[in-house]
Amino acid sequence: YVRGIFKNLHGWFINCLRYLFCCFQDRAGQFFSSGHTNNWAVLVCTSRFWFNYRHVANTLSVYRSVKRLGIPDSHIVLMLADDMACNHRNPKPATVFSHKNMELNVYGDDVEVDYRGYEVTVENFLRILTGRLPPSTPRSKRLLSDDRSNILIYLTGHGGNGFLKFQDSEEISNVELADAFEQMWQKRRYNELLFIIDTCQGASMYERFYSPNLMALASSQVGEDSLSHQPDLAIGVHLMDRYTFYLLEFLEDIHPASKTNMNDLFKVCPKSQCVSTPGHRTDLFLRDPGSVLITDFFGSVRKVELTMETINLTDPIEQLESAESGELQKEMHTYADQLPVSEIIHQKPKQKDWHPPDGFILGLWTLILLVFFQTYGVKHLKHIF
Amino acid sequence: EANAVIIPQCSHIPPGRRGCLMETTVSPNKEELVIRPLHSGDIYTSFQFRTLWETDFTRENKVSHYRLFPKSLGQVISKFSVRELHISFTQGYWRTMQWGQPYLPSPPGAELWVWFQDSLTDVDGTWKELTNVLSGIFCASLNFIDSTNTVQPSASFKPLGIGNVTDHQIVCTENLTPWKKLLPCGSKAGLAVLLKSEKLFHSSFHSQAVHIRPVCKDDQCKTTSWELRQTLNVVFDLHNSGQGKNEWSLFKMFSRTLTEACPVASSSKIYIDITDNSQGEQFELSPATPLLSQAVVLGDRRTFSVYDLTQQITFGTICNVLKLPVTYSAHAGDMLRPLLHAERYVAGYGLQTGEIHTLMYNNHPYRSFPVLLLDSVPWYLRLYIHTLTVTSKGKDNKPSYIHYQPSKDRVRPHLLEMLVQLPPNSVTEVTLQFERALLKWTEYTPDPNHGFYVGSSVISSLVPSIVAMDTNNSRERPLFSSFFPSKEESSYFVRVYTEPLLVNLPTPDFSMPYNVICLTCTVVAVGYGSLYNLLTRSFQIEEPSPGLAKRIANIIRKMRGVPPL
After folding, report:
1. Are residues B207 and B345 in the same domain?
2. Residue B63 binned pLDDT confidence (cut-offs 50, 70, 90)
3. How far is residue B158 CA from its own chain's centroid?
């Protein structure tokens, strides 16, 4: 009897272990299922002027969430078309608020804007995506992603059916955007890409996508307008757009270890709150959206492998002797005179390089000479010289 | 050879080398804050952080050891063969008549001056790369600096350098953040703790700058070391920020308090200018400090109360609060009038022509002194130099040196440098007429009706000083008095910047291309379309279908075999 019980316990114990092991494997499997090793974010606000304060606040709130969840500044390309924080109309300088009564300052104290003002153009945006930047562009302005990067792209501004307006002077169309993503896919510049757009008729921007591994969300369907949330009477403008406001509230509940997946993201801002109907597109995405974690795109969950091996350090290196003593006697340096009046007055003008005369002058003189010799004949030449 | 070995103090070992260059001396790092109450009721605060770095780039070994000197700037200096670099970001305009002279002048917007080593051959290419790199480091739109707004002055800004005189920029926290990251202690300890952006930008004037230059290591000056100075000048308007009482403290100004000095700083001091308060009648400092210091700065001998943060006794109270029950009465005229002062404005009407007027004031009662005026005007304002007039006290004042480099459309701006002698107690007016150019459609900014900026004029001068200046440059002096080295005792160097100008260029109607396309397409569709149809279609006459009665009659006639109606 006792042996029977023992066998039962034993069997139960083995089952438990097996179950735990499977759990573990599932977790471990889930840990490595997404296939990405680094995260990037490209956040763009395309509107200029003070009354478009809410677009800058939208972008900054996504920036704040993304930074909070772990993506470092070096992996975020932030483009703001105008400066609202230090705008002279802002009653509280160096702040951008997302909630009325100035509850949350999304500008913060540690913000790095990579493209500001006039630099936010369609050309620069497409160059960042495709990687075709001039060689002297600094690293902070480049999207240095590889084929194991998950990229989050967020656009906000004024848009229409099939286009997004940049700074009131140019537009980007959905065809151009789709082609840019295809270039990125051909050049293996992303593993998976999440595209979020908060503009009027935003769903038209993802209609034309045709590259694999793209997931897109928009704040409104074709024919609908995205509305703004609430104005603040002290600042005098609308602070945020509805979709991004509820997106920010949703993201505030996410922490780096959270297991929320994309299906919850699709439910953000239903029609009752947003007035417009948010849309999404997942047919190009290979994985099931229910298995994609929010932190796969919004966070930067690093995968760490622990190793128990020991590493042998070799002997320390000897220092080089600093060869200062054997130097020749150096000349004395002096501070330059800031305003050497006598030197300036007696300065000789720089000798300009002699350039051969212009084509026009040469042609003119040739013409004059030709006419002269035509009229008077060549025999007079000897009288002249 | 060494593989991946970890040695303390060496951050990177290139493979194949047997060793690395160690720093033999500790880089002294100084930080100081000067607070000066101004006569207009504002408070002028000036932060300076200085780091010295002993290294020599002319040797073969690449420098790879950075301790306090930031690596990003060190790599910029070595890669682009930079001898001196000055970059400043300013928001607001310095009001010389109300506030006096600043310790470090800076023009509104962004300004970048660079001197390259003699060994550099391709200056233009290096300049372009350098501006791009700096725009990445400081999050500023310096990449718009190109040949169309860069000048190489011949006389101002000795030694000769290449520079860009102010571009309109908005300065905000995104510029302050990388600036703070260059400091040795970051914003975690020492005076940099006070730098909270919300208070700093809520001010009348805000300027941050980085200056890199070689300085003499000792008296003989045989060797030089690199000096990095980071300066931040802010003028707070206490009435504006909601503090009605004439009382201020560090916490009220910066909303932070000081708790400790930066551990790597060899000296960390706060200076409060109490020259106007010699008898203690205007204000009172608390906690009081026995340390006093005198310095000759801007031609005047000023007295300062000193708080040394490296001493523990300074932090007697929990928060370092300084209260000043101040009554600024109406004797603002007692302020030392600045001897040199300048203004600039655009005159004229319409969108075709205009006139630039620059006024320079010499407020000294009996001494005259020379000033060097540097003007860099963009190419789209076409200057007519034959209309240049310089008048003082109604009479013509011929400059002793003029250097003018005309502009080339879309290639380089105008450069005008003049050395003018200002007579005592006078106003000198420089006028110049210009014509506005029409830009190409794509060259307009997205908001062209705002106008286009013309950078400030720079006026450099040696102004006679009231007290003897200290010409011994190697002695340890507070940072704010040692920026411009003095060569003679009777005068000191001053640089004044005028206001930038905002001019409207004739702006086209940007909807015109759309209008033209609509009209052309309509004309083509309606006109050509109809013409084509008329010419190519053939017309056939068709009988209208007969009525019902006639149709029935036709059917009956067909049945009878009779021709239809």
Report:
1. no
2. low
3. 19
Tens-place pLDDT, residues B268-280: 888 888 877 666 6
Identify the pLDDT of residue A164: 95
The pLDDT of residue A4 is above 50: yes
Of B7, B154, B220, the CB nearest to A347: B154
Q: Do A318 and B18 touch (CB under 8 A)?
A: yes
In terms of Cβ atoms closer than 10 Å to its own Cβ (0-12, 13-18, 19+), residue A118 is middle
Query: Going by C-beta distance under 8 Å and a sequence separation of 6 or more, which residues neighbour residue B54?
Result: B23, B24, B25, B27, B217, B225, B226
Does the N-terminal peptide bond of residue B159 adopt cis geometry, omega within 30 degrees of 0? Answer: yes
Q: Which residues in chain A are closer than 8 Å to B177, comparing Cβ atoms?
A: 109-112
**A159: closest CA of chain B, how far (Å):** 17
The alpha carbon torsion through B155, B157, B158, B162 (nearest 10 deg) reads: -90
Please indicate whether, in this complex, the C-beta atoms of B446 and A349 are within 8 angstroms of each other: no
**Confidence grade of residue A323 (pLDDT, cut at 50, 70, 90):** very low
Residues B159 and B296 in one domain: yes
Residue A200 a catalytic site member: yes
Q: How confident is the model at residue B333 (pLDDT cuts 50, 70, 90)?
A: very low
Domain housing B75? 29-328
Q: Shortest CA distance to A145 belongs to which of A182, A177, A180, A185?
A: A185
Question: What is the average per-residue pLDDT within B100-118?
Answer: 86
Residue from A45, A200, A269, A274 carrying the catalytic annotation: A200
Domain boundary among B301, B328, B355: B328
A158 is catalytic: yes
Residue A131 has pLDDT above 90, yes or no: yes
Residues B395, B463: one domain? yes
Strand runs labelled E in chain A: 38-45, 76-80, 115-116, 149-156, 158-160, 163-166, 170-173, 192-198, 214-218, 279-281
- Contact at CB, B221 and A333, closer than 8 angstroms: yes
Domain match, B271 and B417 both: no
- The tally of domains found in chain A comes to 1
Inter-chain contact A109–B22, Cβ cutoff 8 Å? no
Number of domains present in the structure of chain B = 2
Is B493 in contact with A339 (Cβ distance < 8 A)? yes
Q: What is the pTM for the complete model shown? A: 0.82
Q: What is the pLDDT of residue B280?
A: 61
Which residues on chain A are in Cβ contact (under 8 Å) with B415? none
Mean pLDDT of B87-93: 90
Please indicate, yes or no, whether residues B90 and B221 belong to a single structural domain of this protein: yes
Q: Give this complex's ipTM.
A: 0.81
pLDDT, position A28: 54
- Token representation of residue A279: 């849309």
Give yes or no for residue B85 having a pLDDT over 60. Answer: yes
- Interface contacts A/B by beta carbons within 8 Å: 160
Q: Is residue A22 part of a domain?
A: no
pLDDT band at B16 (very low <50, low <70, confident <90, very high): very low
Domain contains B406: yes
Whether residue A140 and residue B170 make contact (CB cut-off 8 A), yes or no, is no
Distance from CA of B131 to the nearest CA of A (A): 9
Gap from B218 CA to chain A (nearest CA, Å):
11
Q: What are phi and psi of A177, to 5 degrees?
A: -65, -45
Looking up residue B384, the CATH number of its domain turns out to be 2.60.40.740
Q: Do B407 and B267 lie in a common domain?
A: no
Identify the pLDDT of residue B139. Answer: 86
Between B170, B171, B419, which is nearest A345 by CB?
B419
The one catalytic residue in A36, A99, A158, A229 is A158
Where residue A150 sits, what CATH number does that domain have?
3.40.50.1460
B141 and A344 within 8 Å at the Cβ level: the answer is: no
Measure A32 CA to nearest chain B CA, in Å. 29
Query: What Å distances lie between residue A218 and A65, A70, A156, B409, CA to CA?
Result: 18, 24, 10, 45
